[in-house]
């Protein structure tokens, strides 16, 4: 089972992890998609987009129409959400033009610290 971690990390932390992986040649974790701020994470992962990701999780690549059908939503509305998720790097597009979310699960990880 492949689980992607969505997290909030500074660019410095991300670059430090990349340097660590380059030095050790061992990745520290599985797939990860990072956002610079909590606000950006929630801007990209709206409630509707989260529902769309739930519909795509564990599924093979599919057409926009199939994704809309699985999510129980209008194709036009799903098109906008797919575009936003593609732009953020959460979804990918296959050579055939299908949308893909190649993960069986999603883990969201961030910590709120006192101001």
Automatic annotation (TrEMBL):
Protein name: DNA-binding protein
Pfam annotation, one family: HVO_A0114
GO molecular function: DNA binding
Keywords assigned: DNA-binding
Superkingdom per UniProt: Bacteria
Family matches, as InterPro entries: WH_DNA-bd_sf
SUPFAM superfamilies hit by this protein: Winged helix' DNA-binding domain
